[in-house]
Amino acid sequence: MIKNFITLLLSLFLLNSLTGQIYINEFMADNDAITTDESGEFEDWIELYNAGSSVVDIGGFFITDDYSDVFKFQIPTGDSTTKIQPGGFLVLWADDDINDGALHIGIKLSKDGEKIRLTDRDSILVDSISFGAQTTDISMGRLTDGGATWTSFSSPTPNTSNQSVSIKDNTAISGIHIFPNPNSSDKVYFSQKVDIEIFDLSGRQIKTAEISDEISISELKNGIYILRINGQFVRKLIVE
Predict the structure, then answer these.
(1) What share of the chain is helix, strand, coil (3-state, %, to 5)?
(2) What is the structure's pLDDT at 202?
(3) pLDDT tens for each residue of 80-112
(4) Could you give the dihedral angle defined by the CA atoms of residues 218, 223, 224 and 228, in that order, rounded to the nearest 10 degrees?
(5) Is 95 in contact with 44 (CB distance < 8 Å)?
(6) Per-residue exposure over 54-85, b if at least 16 CB sit within 10 Å of its own CB, e if not
């Protein structure tokens, strides 16, 4: 009996020590042109960060935008996509379209401001945030991952470290000009032939071109992309 009781206490301690390392790290309540889900749709999103040294499965956790109903939506269990690696990130799509997968949750965020609350399987608060009116395509996040200070990000970083928002255009190869930028046409042009790679803000490579002075972007959705030229991350490309 005593052994079973001690085992139970240890289990509860381990669970609480794991959930205590999860943070609501960044969110966007009015995503018009920043990043898309698997279906190519621009949806509200909430990024979680695992600050600990162990994998945490958030399957079975509860998330809500209504503090009077803390059990509004339970994240599905038994799905490998709900696991967050140590030091890793996980984006939940707040689109109220739960048939799209385990990471699509049954709430939507209001751009006029509201609250987000994450609770573990034992009804213990994991993290929460209250926010005011939001601006289209501007996210809010912790200034450093898991830190106490929140700020607005004009260059959101879903599924990546918030510290990467400090990346600025590299002027080391300032002789290379890119036009038009912002871009509403089908192509981007460069002032000389270069190796070009285009990445979205989640770090996924979208396009490449070897030794060229132009690249087609007709298939890119509106949003912000990062260019790597001759092996260096050097420019932001805005597609309108």
Answers:
(1) 15, 40, 50
(2) 59
(3) 999 999 999 999 999 999 999 999 999 999 999
(4) -20
(5) yes
(6) eebbbbebbbbbeeeeeebbbbbeeeeebebe
The radius of gyration of the chain from alpha carbons, rounded to an integer in Å, stands at 20
CATH class of 2-166: mainly beta
Task: Check: CB of residue 238 under 8 Å from CB of residue 224.
Answer: yes
Nearest-angstrom CA–CA distance, 14 and 54 = 11
Least confident of 14-18, 55-59, 113-117, 227-231: 14-18
Tokens 């009804």 belong to 123
Q: What pTM was estimated for this model as a whole? A: 0.65
Burial of 3 (C-beta count, 10 Å sphere; 0-12/13-18/19+): exposed
Helix ranges (H only) for the chain are 2-19
Residue pLDDT, tens place only, 115-131: 999 999 999 999 999 99
Is pLDDT at 184 greater than 50 in this prediction? yes
Rounded to whole angstroms, the Cα distance separating 153 from 143 reads 9
Q: Which two tokens stand for residue 181?
A: 């930028």
Domain ranges across the chain: 2-166, 171-239
